[in-house]
Design a protein that fits this description.
Number of strands: 16
CATH class of the largest domain: Alpha Beta
Number of helices: 13
CATH architecture of the largest domain: 3-Layer(aba) Sandwich
Number of domains: 2
Shape: globular
Radius of gyration: 22 Å
Order of helices and strands: HEHEEHHEHHEEHEHHEHEEEHHEEEEEH
Helix content: 25-40%
């Protein structure tokens, strides 16, 4: 009887694994929403991502709620806004805790504990029988601290452990760690989740000459290097997806694609320009989002607004994993993609904070923007949060509310707030209904 029970459990486990899709989560790092062939860029070559788009449910009006690396990645891991998970910036502020000081070390240690308050996606998938692998960018300590079963990042407080450390090699120095993990998971007949977040096209922009030569005669060198890095990233995506095909597991794999935040390359320096990374403008927060699952999801070009926060509950639904105890703000998109039904959402919201955190317990001290998009309208409110690093990026030309018609003006060149006070007032009310601010100040709407 005992042998029969063990045999039943073994067979059940095998059937369970076969029924679960693998999940490949591809995260671009610092790339504008415009910088793909399928998004209409006239020069940047992204044939592999374009092919993935042709096989996917594509949301060209996708957004990340916060346009900065660490807060954005923490939202992917937990499914929550930065104002909820608390990791609003990349580092504790050097204004209060000098670099290299014991005090800063303590604050960094405190900051990586914030993830422990939440069920992470790798943890929930582990409960459902999944293995998981982290490569590339990761800030919250080691990969194990995030619930991954396998990974590359040593993380803080290890020496040199920050933002991904050893994980930065992925893509730039081949894909062997990913391939070895895939081989192991397939050999064990286990479903798996792969976090592929290479430091690409993120700086340093040092592409191989074979790619740089395609662009350097037409553009300033900084632009040419960035374009070539976008193409290098595309090549790694093609190689990784090709390995899934080689192993015969592509049809049972859900691929999710998005970037952590935007980047508009400055033609005169190695930096990004204003109105891109770290801001609430389209160049910072808009990111195309796609889901590819052969045989399950038919390719579609969707017009609705979606948030990166929707990825968390959608993956849970696709894998049969449990939803976390803390209610998620995102929507499970799976039934709407499967049946091609319209997503019942009226508006999306986002927020942006300074690069450095002035107070780990009070996010309002570095709050810079809150925004809302409803239909064609986008309202951006600016706040007086403290800025220590990159102050030039936040040298705001307008502190009053900014209202844009994204259908006519996708690059937000004309502020229509003064001409549409009723729309502004309505959207301000929506933003305050999302969550109120207590101390952060903004210019009054009708001042």
């Amino acid at each position: 009887m005992k042998k029969l029970t063990l045999l039943f459990l073994l067979l059940s486990s095998l059937a369970y694994a076969a029924d679960k899709p693998n999940v490949l989560f591809i995260l671009s790092d610092d790339q504008s929403w415009t910088d793909y062939g399928f998004m209409g860029h006239p020069e940047i070559k992204t044939p592999h991502i374009d092919k993935l788009a042709s096989e996917s449910v594509v949301f060209k009006r996708g957004y990340v709620p916060t346009a900065l690396c660490r807060p954005s990645l923490m939202s992917f891991a937990t499914g929550h806004y930065a104002s909820t998970h608390g990791v609003t910036g990349n580092d504790p502020s050097r204004n209060y805790w000098p670099n290299g000081s014991d005090e800063q070390h303590v604050k960094r240690a405190e900051l990586i504990t914030f993830i422990e308050k939440f069920d992470t996606l790798p943890e929930l998938l582990a409960e459902a029988g999944y293995l998981s692998h982290q490569s590339g960018k990761w800030w919250e300590g080691s990969y194990k601290h995030g619930g991954f079963t396998h990974g590359m990042t040593r993380g803080f407080p290890e020496k040199g452990g920050r933002a991904g450390d050893d994980g930065w090699k992925i893509g730039r120095e081949g894909l062997e760690p990913c391939k070895e993990f895939i081989d192991m998971a397939v050999a064990k007949d286990k479903p798996f989740y792969m976090w592929y977040a290479p430091l690409l096209p993120h700086s340093p922009h040092n592409p191989p000459d074979r790619l740089l030569n395609k662009y350097k005669d037409k553009h300033p060198l900084t632009i040419a290097k960035y374009y070539a890095m976008c193409e290098l990233f595309d090549e790694t995506c093609g190689e990784l997806i090709g390995y899934f095909e080689k192993k015969g597991i592509r049809d049972n794999t859900l691929i999710v694609y998005i970037s952590d935040n935007g980047w508009i390359q400055d033609p005169e320096s190695r930096q990004f320009v204003a109105r891109s990374k770290q801001t609430a403008y389209e160049g910072g927060v808009r990111q195309p989002m796609m889901f590819s699952w052969p045989g399950k999801l038919k390719p579609q070009d969707r017009k609705e607004l979606v948030l990166s926060l929707d990825i968390f509950p959608t993956i849970l639904a696709a894998t049969g994993a449990r939803q976390p105890k803390k209610k998620l703000p995102g929507i499970n998109l799976l039934p709407y993609m499967e049946d091609k039904k319209e997503i019942p959402r009226k508006a999306i919201f986002g927020e942006s904070f300074a690069h450095d955190i002035a107070d780990l317990q009070d996010y309002e001290k570095t709050l810079l923007y809150r925004w809302c998009i409803q239909g064609k309208w986008k309202l951006l409110l600016t706040y007086d949060g403290e800025v220590v690093r990159f102050p030039d990026i936040h040298a705001r030309t307008e502190k009053r509310p900014q209202l844009f018609d994204l259908m006519k003006d996708p690059h937000e060149l004309k502020n229509l707030a003064a001409e549409n006070p009723k729309i502004v007032a309505k959207m301000v009310k929506q933003i305050d209904g999302w969550y109120p601010v207590k101390r952060a100040k903004t210019v009054k709407v009708f001042e």
